[in-house]
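Need residues for this backbone.
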């Protein structure tokens, strides 16, 4: 794509001038630093014409524009996070392009590589993770899938302490990704989920988001952009070491019959086959070249930082990275809500979340409990762990659940006597839902942790949950 620096483009409400490229072109397009009506903005030109998913991406941008006002209202001026959602779309030489807010600060990858986070205390790094998690929790609660979580797509301003999530054009409804109705992005580098890299799933949607989210937190905690699988097997295999992306690494590992060992978390307490700590101990004193000594110091730094991570977070990372090619495991990765609870405890946060609830009535906090009678006192959770909100008539605001046929849908919950009953209204095809209503009784209750209960509705394999605040 040609360089459009200096070009002026007419939009609906004025003319934008593209000043210069903001870094190198990414895999999906080029971002420009721009001036629009005297204010700094970002302007992204996508590689949409030659992209087989280009048409779907254009539709997705239009949908984000349609929803922008409501999304902005929910996000509000919370002081912790924001998103560069499209403000206006246009075409540049036939390519899809859109105007967005300018992200201040630096991307997380840069802050790791330039040593900024290494100078931060553990508490300060946890604060950064908390704010990033608040942003990702917002998406999860709104049933949105980001698809491309990585250290280069999250900005952090060290002055204002604001987190900004960029490259939002792939953000779409999770059920659309699962059903193949939206452009699916595999992910970037080693933030790509292993099951996607190994070709086991075509579109993992939220489970892939949750892997990338955990990998991002792991990067910040260890002050490294290494993957959770950068251990003995990777460093002893030159082919793997040079792979760069999860899909390439999985392909090469499989060829060398090392896939299972390579995809073992480097700090797995039960399996040391790919242990980074053991690897450092074994090679210490054996590497004479200065470049190898620098690498060893880097790996020892990762190990030192890991040892400082609180056990409450280590447990979540173990769950996120263990047995990555086992569907029973990768579909149960920790959710943003689980991270929020652990981080809230570690940081002594008073509020449950700064994310406004979906009813738009008030913020959630333990000190400001919603009134049960106004329909906001019950919080439902679908099988992905998304928090679902009851309206005043106990009808569920549409969000995804999964039944035995992996269909997405919505419904409502009512209590008859001592029995909870889930009424499935239908799949996401709203017309079909009118003739697809049934009731699941005989609801089984399973108590888990911290006041949350999971319910299995009959034999339909529909999982819902409820929490009283």
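Answer:
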């Amino acid at each position: 794509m040609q360089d459009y620096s200096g070009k002026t483009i007419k939009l609906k409400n004025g003319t934008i001038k593209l000043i210069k490229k903001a870094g190198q072109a990414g895999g999906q397009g080029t971002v420009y630093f721009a001036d629009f009506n005297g204010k700094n903005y970002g302007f992204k030109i996508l590689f949409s014409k030659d992209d087989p998913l280009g048409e779907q991406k254009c539709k997705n941008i239009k949908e984000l524009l349609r929803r922008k006002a409501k999304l902005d209202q929910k996000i509000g001026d919370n002081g912790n996070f924001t998103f560069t959602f499209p403000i206006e779309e246009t075409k540049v030489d036939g390519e899809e392009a859109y105007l967005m807010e300018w992200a201040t600060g630096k991307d997380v990858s840069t802050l790791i590589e330039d040593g900024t986070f290494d100078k931060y205390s553990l508490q300060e790094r946890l604060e950064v993770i908390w704010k990033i998690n608040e942003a990702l929790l917002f998406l999860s609660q709104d049933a949105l899938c980001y698809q491309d979580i990585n250290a280069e797509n999250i900005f952090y301003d060290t002055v204002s302490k604001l987190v900004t999530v960029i490259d939002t054009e792939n953000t779409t409804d999770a059920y659309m990704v699962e059903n193949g109705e939206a452009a699916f992005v595999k992910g970037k580098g080693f933030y790509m989920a292993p099951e996607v890299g190994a070709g086991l799933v075509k579109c993992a949607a939220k489970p892939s988001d949750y892997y990338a989210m955990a990998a991002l937190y792991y990067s910040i905690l260890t002050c490294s952009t290494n993957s959770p699988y950068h251990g003995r097997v990777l460093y002893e295999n030159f082919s793997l070491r040079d792979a760069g992306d999860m899909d390439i690494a999985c392909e090469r590992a499989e060829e060398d019959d090392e896939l299972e060992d390579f995809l073992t978390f480097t700090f797995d307490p039960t399996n040391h086959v790919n242990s980074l700590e053991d690897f450092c101990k074994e090679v210490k004193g054996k590497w004479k070249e200065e470049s190898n000594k620098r690498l060893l110091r880097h790996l020892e730094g990762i190990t030192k930082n890991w040892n400082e991570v609180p056990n409450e977070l280590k447990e979540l990372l173990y769950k996120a990275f263990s047995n990555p090619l086992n569907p029973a495991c990768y579909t149960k990765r920790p959710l943003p809500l689980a991270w929020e609870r652990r981080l809230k405890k570690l940081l002594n946060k008073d509020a449950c979340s700064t994310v406004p609830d979906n009813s738009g009535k008030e913020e959630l906090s333990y000190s400001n409990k919603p009134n049960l009678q106004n329909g906001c006192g019950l919080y439902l959770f679908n099988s992905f762990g998304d928090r679902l909100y009851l309206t005043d008539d106990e009808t569920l605001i549409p969000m995804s659940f999964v039944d035995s046929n992996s269909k997405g849908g919505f419904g409502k919950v009512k209590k008859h006597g001592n029995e909870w009953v889930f009424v499935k209204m239908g799949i996401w095809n709203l017309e079909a839902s009118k003739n697809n209503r049934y009731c699941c009784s005989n609801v089984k209750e399973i108590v888990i942790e911290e006041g949350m209960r999971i319910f299995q509705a009959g034999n339909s394999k529909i999982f819902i949950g409820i929490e009283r605040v």
